[in-house]
Amino acid sequence: MFLFFKKSYRFIRIILHVLWGIIQVVYHLNEVDSLSEKEKKIVLNWFDKFVQLLNIEKKIHGEIHPENQLMVANHISWKDILLLNSIYPTRFVAMSEISKWPIVGWLSTKVGTLFVKRGNISDIRRLNEQIYNLIAAGERVTLFPEGATSDGSEIAHLYPGLFQSVISSSENDIPLGVQPIVIVYKVDDSLSPHIPFTGKGSMLGNLWTVLGFDHITADIYFTSYISSENMTRKTLSKNSLQQMREILSVKI
Predict the structure, then answer these.
(1) Which residues contact 251 (CB under 8 A, 6 or more apart)?
(2) DSSP of 142-175, one letter per residue?
């Protein structure tokens, strides 16, 4: 019974925080393509508070490379987006279906999420060009190239399609590259089967489960920058995967 009331209290706080986020979006984020530094800080602070409400302690390892780059991360849960958004300003790439979700779709659109139609080659080409233009202009774009979530114990094949966005720089004067990121969630210093969200059950159900934990550790490893110079998208994705797997193998 105590656990139920504890979860309920935490859930109510999250609902209030989401409502506050909607208010912030309405009043501060009308032009997502040109967020000011103040507006970016508002977004960072909102996501950081959300992470705190989930009782997640962030431990950041390494540094974000200062050069223009595509950020690629392993994908374990919907919490990954909250986590990374609380560390650095970024646009995320998500499937177009999410844009139709109530509230979540609207919020995602307002914070600059880039949507791609699943399996649509022409849409991937369009998105590659859009990502290139954003990165070349100084923005960061983050994607989860596994294409699906995992339990966090391994990193699957990385789909190379959207790596073309930084390969395109070989035809331009602006050098681009990739910085792979590895996320590891732990409870009591061990991987927990309750933290990942692999599509089984509902996101709300997973949230309810997570609210029962008093302390979750999230280690975020920013690995070495990989230049796209003289690379193909397949080679770039392969090198990123190797780098990510090497980190994961010694950190879990």
Answers:
(1) 182, 184, 219, 221
(2) EE-TTSS---SS---PPP-GGGHHHHGGGGSSS-
Distance CA 54, CA 210 (A): 7
Fold of 2-251: Glycerol-3-phosphate (1)-acyltransferase (3.40.1130)
Non-local (6+) Cβ contacts of 79 within 8 A are 51, 54, 56, 185, 195, 197, 210, 218
Cα-flanking dihedrals φ and ψ of residue 176, to 5°? -120, 170
**DSSP letter (8 states) at residue 184:** E
pLDDT per residue as tens digits for the range 151-205? 999 998 899 999 999 986 555 667 789 999 999 999 999 999 999 998 778 888 9
Helix (H) or strand (E) holding 135: helix 121-136
pLDDT at residue 200, rounded to an integer = 79
DSSP state of 218: E
Tens-digit pLDDT profile for residues 103-141: 667 777 777 788 877 767 788 888 898 899 899 888 899
Beta bridge partners, 222, equal 181
Of 73, 12, 2, the C-alpha closest to 207 is 12
pLDDT bucket at 29, cuts 50 / 70 / 90: low
Mean pLDDT score of the chain: 88
Asked whether residue 9 carries a pLDDT value surpassing 70, the answer given is yes
Q: What are the extents of the domains in the chain? A: 2-251
Q: Where are the beta strands (DSSP E) in the chain?
A: 56-61, 69-73, 91-95, 114-116, 141-143, 177-186, 216-222, 226-227
